[in-house]
Amino acid sequence: MVDKSDKEKGKNRDISYDISLPSQHTYLGDDLEELTGRTLLDDNSCPNLPLLPLPGIVLVPGQTIPLQLFEPSAISMVKRIIEKDHTLGIINSRYQALSPGVVCVGTTAEIRSYREEADENIGLSTLRLKAEGRQRFEILEARRQIDGVVMAKVRILPEIMVDDPGGGIRLSCLDRFRTLPLSTMDTNTRSSGLDSDRFNSPLRRKYDRFDFANYTRWPRWVYHQYDAMLIVQRIIQELQKWNCFIPTDRTPRTPLDFSYWVASNLPLDDNKRLCLLGLNNAIQRLRCELSMLKRYRTLCCRNTMCNMDIANRYDTFSMSLEGPQGTYVNPSGYVHEIITTYKARGLSLFGSPSTEQSWFPGYAWTAASCSGCDNHVGWKFTTTNCKLEPQQFWGLCRASLRPAFSSDGKDELWEPNI
Questions:
Q1: Is the distance from CB of 280 to CB of 159 less than 8 angstroms?
Q2: Are 282 and 259 in contact (CB under 8 A)?
Q3: Cα 88–chain centre separation
Q4: Which of 11, 58, 64, 364 has the lowest tally of Cβ within 10 angstroms?
């Protein structure tokens, strides 16, 4: 259980930090070369793509991913991609394309900017780049080339769009008794030259886009459960219960993009995130996300022998415009997905604070491990400027944690519950 006073304290904190800085990934340098042109592959097309497996990462469309590559084969592959269509495939390394019997879902990543640096002393190069997740795909077949690069034939997964269920049911002869939304009413009256007084008639009812349910065998609450905009509103209301510093006012406006934003910010394990990525309909994806949001309570250590509580949902907040969870890369090229929280418990710090390649400019980081099992869990960030708020916060690795859901005696995490 979470103490109400802790929840209120989280809601009353101020943020003076410029949350646009982390999403710029300035630690990669300000000399990256921007690439122009965008690539959109046709739905159900089957192109051949080079794959880049990443441990602990499940890329979602719309998510930005920074990379630092050191292996000559990976650098050579990316340079060929830059000269071609800027697109490669990102998959989770736990679900290798060459593993028999494993259905692998991944996401195309489009390179947006890059910079190559050559060290003449040792004759090696480093490639720094930023890419964006674009389209989901499934792997049909794959092969490993002699240079170690995995090439795969993939199928671009389409997003199935559901038609308005009331489109073929509403009776147009009753439109004159229905009050349209204000913006629609103004547009219609101006374009058709109709008298606006007629639209303000007291005989007209309030606009109800679910009134078609009166002519079907199903009550309107059934249609509410499958209305994308209503589910989006309920997810936003659920997030606002967590913490007012989750920027729901800056989230994508379309249900499809919003479903991807929630998927990229929910602190789920790889299995459940891949399940969300495999869904081919935004409404079903939103329903699953809402079900999990209602059940999610705390973040625990991923080690099943430990299971120590690390943070609760009310301490989650956004230090980035992208949301409470962001993707960053360390100097060794390892990519981390980081959840920012005000508080964390059961952690031990080791090492001295450092500002080297800090993901949050103006803050120094100190590595943290679980005091129960000594596994690395994340970092504590402390400000180097006394005027910045918050003065300190925690960046927790999604790959090192698992979400703890409310238990009702059985696993119903994937049954939509709205």
A1: yes
A2: yes
A3: 19
A4: 11
